[in-house]
Write a structure and sequence with these properties.
The chain is α+β, with helices and mostly antiparallel strands and about 150 residues long. Helix content is about 15%, strand content about 50%. The chain has a single domain, classed as PCu(A)C copper chaperone (Immunoglobulin-like), CATH 2.60.40.1890. Strands 1, 2, 3, 4, 5, 6, 7, 8, 9 and 10 form a ten-stranded mixed beta sheet that branches. Strand 1 and strand 2 form a beta hairpin. It binds copper (II) ion.
Length: about 150
């Protein structure tokens, strides 16, 4: 006699199979396509804010989009861009950052940077700042940015 219980495993098997098939045809996660180099952060003595810099290279044939940045060392992390307008340096926040296929995007002083607010403790040279880059495909990348002195370029 067939009961509801004997039907259940078959249903679960079908569901599992569908899940495996759907993921097998998906592309490589964007996280694997993104190569991060030259990560570093700059100390700001007497302040609980800091900037971190990275070189992002997209090795894939599709755009990689960073949708947010987090750091366990700060209460808030975001992507900023410094622009000089009319002799005044201003920073604006980027909702996201797209790295086009095969391209490199540099976050460096006087340009794009990761802004850290509310550092839990002062940064000192030799330490490193943990960063998590969250990507639009749901994957994320963990980076450690070594801390350099204020006069680092
Ligand atoms: Cu900033």
């Amino acid at each position: 006699m067939k009961t509801a219980f004997s039907v259940l495993p078959a249903f679960l098997r079908a569901f599992t199979l569908a899940f495996v098939v759907c993921c097998a045809v998906g592309q490589t996660p964007a996280g694997a396509a993104l190569v991060v180099t030259e990560a570093w952060a700059r100390v700001t003595p007497g302040s609980d804010v800091a900037a971190a810099y990275l070189t992002l290279h997209n090795t894939s044939k599709k755009p990689v989009t960073i949708i947010s940045v987090e750091s366990s060392a700060a209460t808030m992390a975001m992507i900023h861009e410094t622009k000089v307008e009319g002799g005044v340096s201003r920073m604006r926040a980027h909702e996201q950052l797209v790295i086009p296929p095969g391209k490199t995007v540099k976050l460096e002083p006087e340009g794009l940077h990761v802004m850290l607010h509310g550092l839990s403790r002062p940064l000192s040279p030799g330490a490193s700042v943990p960063l998590v880059l969250r990507l639009s495909d749901g994957t994320s990348l963990q980076i450690a940015a070594p801390v350099r002195p204020l006069n680092a370029q």
